[in-house]
Structures are given as C-alpha cells and as structure tokens.
Amino acid sequence: MYVRKFEADSLDEALKTIKRDLGPDAIILKTVTNKGLKGAFKKKRIEVTAAISEENYVAKSKVDNVLDEDQKQTFYSDQASYIKEKIQSHNMTEQKSTAASSYGSMGLNKPVKTVKEMGNKIKSSLDDFLTGPATAEPQQRTTPLQTQRIEEPTLGYDNFIDEEPTTRATSMDSITNEADNQLVEMQRNKIDELEQKLYELTQSVERLDKREPIGVYELRTTLRSLDISDSYIQDLTKKALFELSENQTTDADVVFEFALREMIKSINVEMPLFSTIDENSAPAITVMVSDSSSGQTSMLQKIAALKPDSVLIRNTEFDNTGSFTEKVFGMDVVKTNGIAEIVSECRRATEQGKTVFVDYKTGNDEVGEDGVPNNTKKFIDGLRRAFDNVEVLVTLSAIHSELYNRKVVAKYRSLANGLVVSHLDECLNFGALFNIGEDHPEQPFKFFGTGEVVPDDLESATAERILAGIFQFE
C-alpha cells in the first residue's frame, strides 16, 4: 500500500492532484482542513491523505512512462472510469507483447550464453580495464526503464487515446442501458408496492372515520347488553347495512323492526310428533332425556295430562317415588326396572293404540367415545329399530347457565329430535336460549314450561315467546 499526503486550496484541486499522481483507484483515508491561527493569519488549506495499492500504482506508472507532461494533463482530466479502463487496456497489451516474445517468466526461448563465452567476455573486460586509458569514457548502461521505453515506441499518446473508441462507447452504452433498465424496473416494483399499501391504509382509515349509523349502533349496543352472541350481532348488522337504505339505518325503530324479523327466522320451532300423526298411523313414543335437576318429570306430567289415553313410563331404577299429581289426574303410570321392561311396556301400550311418554333417567351412565352415554344410546337405537314413530326430546332448564345447557345439547344432539325448556318463568337470560336455538337449528324447540301448575303452565314453543323474554315485551 502506497500512502501520500496532498495539500491544496480546495477539495476539488486536491482530488484532481490525487487522480493525476495516484490514479483513479486511489482511496481517500483522511481529510483535514487547516484554518491557521484562529483562522486569521493563515490561508485555509485542505490536507488529504490518500492511498493506492502497489499493483495499481505500478500499472499507472507504466502508463506515465509513455506519456509526456501535456499528455498526462489531458489524459488525467478525463473521467475516472475512462482512465481506469485505458490503464487496464495498456497493461493487458503489454502482457500480450511480453508473452509473444517468450514462454512466460521462465524465458525458455531466450538465448543462453555458454560458460566459455562468459569467461572470455569477463577476461577481455578486465584486460581493457587494466590497460585502457584513464580518460576513456565509461560505457553507458541502459536501465530497464529506458529499455522498456525504447522497445515500445508505438504506444504513444495518440495511439493510446484513440485505441478502439467505437468499442469503448458501444460497450459502455450497453452496460449503462442495462443498468438503467434494471434500476427502472426495481423502482417501478417499489412504486407498485407502495401504491398497494397506500390503498390498503386508505381503506382502513375510511372505515375508521366512517361512523356507524345511529340506528345500527343502538341495535348493536342493545343486543350486546342482552347477551346475544357477538357473531350473530355482527352478521345481523352487516345484513341491516346491506338491505336498509342510508336513511333507514339512522332510524332506530326501523332497524329494530328489521332485527326482530330476522331474529324470529333464526329460532326454529316445531310441533311434537305425537300431535302431528294421524289416527291411522302407529302411536308415537316420546322419550325425554336430560341430566339431573332439569324439570323433566314435571314437564312429562303436564304433557301426559293434556294427552288422554296415554301411558307414562318411568324407570324406577333411579326414581322410586310416586306423585300426588299423577294420582289426581288419573295418569296411567308404569314403573319399570331396566331397559328391557321399558321396551316391553312400550310394545304393550302401542298395541293398545296408546301414546307413550318415557321419563328416562340416565343416572351414572358411562359416556362413550362420541360423548353419548352408552346405555342411553343402546336404548334409543333399540326403540327406533322396534317402533316406527319414536321422538327423543332433550330437556333444558331455563335457570341453568348457557354453558351448562350447551353441554347437555352437545351430549345428546346425535340422538335428539328437539328441545324442551322448563322453568321459563324463572329465566333471567333469554339471550342464552336464543343463542342455543340459533347455533342448533337442527334441534327445534317443542315445549316451554312456564310454572308448576299441571297442566296449565305448559305452552307450545314459539319464537315470539323467546323474543318477548329478551326484549321484555308485555
């Protein structure tokens, strides 16, 4: 590495000097501005420390040996890329000429002097030195540098500057055009990405700035306070914004009426099987299943009291108590011990043309891999194989939490044909019942129990009844 300091009045002047003395490959190591004593008694000077590798410095020196001072001044005032290209071209030409005169640095084809010739030359030279006159002029030695300059007379400034100008211009233009095309393509891609991001940000800002209509906002707030699920509220508000006009969405009454119509459609209700079959069909068997404390027994008593000439079958394996209500209304109650007796009593009753209601208690039945109690599943499957009209209803209690009722529905939904809700008069969260009905449309509501009086506190399930409880309608 060759390092040198340069001083000049300005930075431009220093850089020109560096390019002329060290070449275009010089590296700036440090720049110092000397302002003199407090900047008043000495003119400001720029001191630049530059360096260049020995290989590049030797290559530049070979070019300097060919040029005179005026040619150097003209040559080094050109662009740095052009100067660098010409220096490299000169060195390549020199290497080719050297390779043409010998086989590399080994010099295998150079003339070799014999020992005898060398001895005669040394002897004659010594004799001439001893006998020759003192005033004889010493033989002038030729330095390697002088030899090089003599051997290369054709590499003058004119040939050096004018070497292949068309090729240089064409190659430089093609390289420049290719680089410009790549740069333009990169910039276009970046612009496209930025425009896409800007569009997305604009859409997000518009959604944030755009306020929700007052009618839709009030509906959303009201439904959330009534424990309606967020997913349903989101779907309902989207539908309201799509189907209602802009003026209608600002009217709370219009939006509320629209919500009521849509919510009624979301609640599925049906009549029970035993009330829909005709006289010519086989009697229906209605089985009610649930977990403990759901009001299942009282619901069956109310239904059986309304249906004359029916049989109420109860498995006394889990319940061996009688009921005063059953005696008062003269219900035909059959108590059994096990599934086999229940099936036998069902066959006997249906042969007599009676409607059968089964109060089935699962007890501590083991749950299978599908989440359904094993014995209950076997019992229901056996009834459906043996009889034509079998309906299974799951009993839910309105005083239980939504989470608990959801677990009961999930437990029996593969067996059930509908839902029965007890204790509706004590319900504090009709929104939970709405959510269950909306999430399980395949399980329609059949009956609602509204009190303890048999059989008066029983009504057919309707969507209006649940909405009346949700919005506290009279």
Characterise the protein shown here.
There is one protein chain. By secondary structure, the chain is α/β, with parallel strands linked by helices. The chain has helices spanning 11-21, 54-66, 69-75, 80-101, 115-131, 144-151, 157-161, 165-209, 214-225, 230-243, 246-249, 252-266, 296-306, 324-328, 339-351, 374-386, 402-412, 430-439, 463-471; strands at residues 2-8, 27-34, 45-52, 285-289, 310-315, 332-336, 355-359, 390-397, 418-422, 445-449, 458-460. It has four domains: 2-99, no CATH class; 166-210; 214-266; 273-471, P-loop containing nucleotide triphosphate hydrolases (Rossmann fold), CATH 3.40.50.300. Helix content is 52%, strand content 14%. The protein has an eight-stranded mixed β-sheet with strand order 6-5-7-4-8-9-10-11, sandwiched between helices. Strand 5, helix 14 and strand 6 (332-336) form a beta-alpha-beta unit. The longest helix is centred in the middle third of the chain and has 45 residues, at 165-209.
